[in-house]
Fold Cupin 2 conserved barrel domain protein.
Amino acid sequence: MDDVQVSAWKALPVVEPAPGMARRLMSGKQAMLAWFEFEPGARVPWHRHENEQFTYVLQGRLRLRIGEEPSREVVLAAGDVVCIPANVPHEAEALEATVSLDVFSPPRQDWLS
């Protein structure tokens, strides 16, 4: 029971990983939740990671490009969710003010370090 974490999202520290983007994290041993707020036009550049990723858009619209060239392009709107398998390259662009909740398994160690 010592590992139980309880917090309000707004109480968690904010990190700005790129211009126009804010991130809050909560991580356990097997998975991580990340709350993102994007300004219109904010971009997450092409990258890949060993973590499986689920992105659930709560508000706004997010354009994703997923996979090797030619990549698949999808636009997620509020209520949409996507699963990106481990090691699949992807990028994102906020088409408007957007809020998303991402789940990573295992947790992103690069964000915890």
User: Anything to note?
Assistant: The chain is about 5% helix and 50% strand. The chain has one domain: 14-112. The helical segments are 109-112. Strands lie at 21-27, 32-38, 43-47, 52-59, 61-66, 72-77, 81-84, 90-94, 98-105.
